[in-house]
TrEMBL record:
Sequence segments annotated as region (Leucine repeat II (LRII)): 170-202
InterPro entries documented for this protein: TF_GRAS
Motif (VHIID): 124-128
Record region (SAW): 382-457
Signal sequence annotation: none
Xref: Pfam families: GRAS
Family statement drawn from the similarity comment of this UniProt entry: Belongs to the GRAS family.
Keywords: Transcription, Transcription regulation
Record organism: Urochloa decumbens
Protein name in the entry: Uncharacterized protein
Sequence motif: LXXLL motif, positions: 223-227
Length: 485
């Protein structure tokens, strides 16, 4: 391989990875193997940086997908996900919350939306379906906000759906301590299990709903897991012709590579709506974004349809939805890979800048990349059909699904948006930005949207257009949820 400088090697690295993804989709073993070998050399020559680190899990996924048709080899590979210690994953998720400004901003905006929705209510029940994304500090702040509410705090009940018993026990104790310090009437309940395993026919009993309470629902980075359907696992088939049409000028990537990851974006660059890949400051910007896979919303995936129908039946005052803003729900492996390369390139870049700005140990950032983002990447690229749970999608697609399910958008208030913008400013990272979009919030890194925050409530003037009239038609397998206080 002809020698190249770090900047040129970095630009070539992205192109070679995309070329390899096309060969994997076409099931061209020899060509894909050659591309993987080239990518290894280019990654070594590109130096140490966020995109070079990202190439490691991306190349690993390519290799595993390539070997999938050879069971004797594929079955012998070690599945690193099975050896992740739950405590390490829990610590990595907390580090991600501390390092990245995006989850903190999403939490603050969501809390503000809930406070406003139940402003005058005396009995409030908050239901958290965040699962692994849940963090106790979110509820510490909500307790304090309710405590300082004019007219006094409500009687607050919090129900959390989670599958980590140790985490739930610690959360319960911490929240009880905070509520005791504030002298607030507070009750904590949990449902042991995962969102996709809930018995939706028995949700009222499982959540211990009571009459006369105002309900608010949090869905943080979980609804995309309900988009999984069987029968779309033929994603590595199809022609790979014209895949180079997805590549633009390498000069864009060279500009990005020659710039320090913590430097500010070019003058005038803001978080333009869905301007991913159009800015020279966007990591992996040489990849042209695939459009979101068109959905037939009249045949919404049964798990999601069932959950939204059940959620609407709870008559919540508000439903706050936070999701990754990316097109990872498509069938084409090549397009999904290209989208993931751009999305996680921006996310790795933002973590790199945050770790440097906050003087956090490199090992902490590396653990987040391994145990949190690396596992997301594996979920996006390695699994197919009903096993593929990481099916991130764009805000317009989520809005269409919510409206079809009988919800209407609750525009985020000026105060909620201002609070989010203030937090973005205080984080001190010049690449971090936010933008109001149709009453919702997009959280961005160097003009690349990474997360969306939106609020919804049941539209009493419309009927759900989901197929079927009984939630029993949409239920996933019953996970045998257990409750506790």
């Amino acid at each position: 391989m002809q020698e190249c400088g770090p900047t040129e090697c970095l630009a070539k690295l992205g192109r070679v990875l995309c070329e390899c993804a096309a060969h994997v989709e076409a099931r061209s073993l020899e060509k894909a193997t050659l591309c993987l070998a080239r990518s290894t050399g280019l990654a070594a020559a590109a130096g140490v940086g966020p995109l070079q680190r990202l190439s490691v899990p991306m190349a690993d996924c390519l290799a595993r997908c390539l070997l999938r048709p050879i069971p004797a080899i594929a079955d012998a590979l070690i599945d690193t996900s099975e050896y992740l210690d739950r405590r390490c994953v829990r610590a990595a998720r907390r580090s991600f919350f501390d390092l990245s400004p995006f989850p903190k901003v999403a939490v603050a905006v969501g809390n503000r939306a809930i406070l406003e929705a139940v402003e005058n209510e005396k009995n409030v029940h908050v239901i958290d379906f965040a699962g692994p994304a849940a963090q106790p500090c979110q509820w510490f702040q909500l307790l304090r906000d309710f405590h300082s509410r004019p007219g006094g705090p409500p009687h607050l009940r919090l129900t959390v759906v989670h599958d980590d018993g140790e985490f739930l026990a610690k959360m319960s104790q911490l929240l009880a301590d905070v509520a005791g310090e504030l002298d607030m009437a507070f009750q904590f309940h949990y449902v042991f299990g995962q969102l996709e395993s809930l018995d939706l026919d028995d949700l009222h009993r499982i959540l211990k709903l009571r009459s006369g309470e105002a309900r608010a629902i949090f869905c943080t980075l979980q609804l995309h897991r309900l988009l999984a359907v069987a029968g779309d696992d033929d994603t590595c088939s199809g022609a790979a012709a014209n895949h180079f049409e997805q590549m633009e000028s390498v000069a864009r990537l060279q500009q990005m590579a020659s710039r320090s990851s913590s430097s500010c974006p070019p003058a005038g660059v803001t978080c333009e709506e869905y301007d991913l890949y159009s800015s020279p400051a966007t990591p992996m910007s040489f990849v042209s974004p695939p459009a979101s896979t068109p959905h037939n919303f009249q045949t919404m995936p049964p798990p999601l349809a069932g959950f939204l129908s059940a959620a609407r039946a709870l008559s919540p005052k508000i439903v706050v939805v936070t999701e990754q803003d990316a097109s990872h729900n498509g069938v084409s492996f090549r397009k999904r890979f290209a989208e993931a390369l751009g999305y996680y390139g921006a996310l790795y870049d933002s973590l790199d800048a945050a770790a440097a700005a906050y003087r956090r140990p490199a090992a902490e950032r590396a653990e987040v990349e391994r145990a949190v983002l690396g596992e997301e990447i594996r979920g996006v690229l390695l699994h197919e059909g009903a096993r593929r749970r990481e099916r991130h999608d764009r805000l317009p697609q989520w809005a269409a699904r919510m409206e079809l399910a009988g919800f209407r958008n609750v525009p985020l208030s000026y105060m909620a948006l201002r609070q989010g913008n203030d937090m973005v400013t205080r984080c001190g990272l010049r690449g971090c930005d936010s933008r109001e979009h149709g009453g919702c919030l997009l959280l961005c890194w160097r003009s690349c949207p990474l997360y969306s925050v939106s609020a919804w409530r049941p539209d009493r003037g419309s009927q759900s257009q989901l197929i079927g009239s009984s939630s029993s038609e949409f239920i996933c397998a019953n996970g045998g949820s257990v409750e506790g206080e």
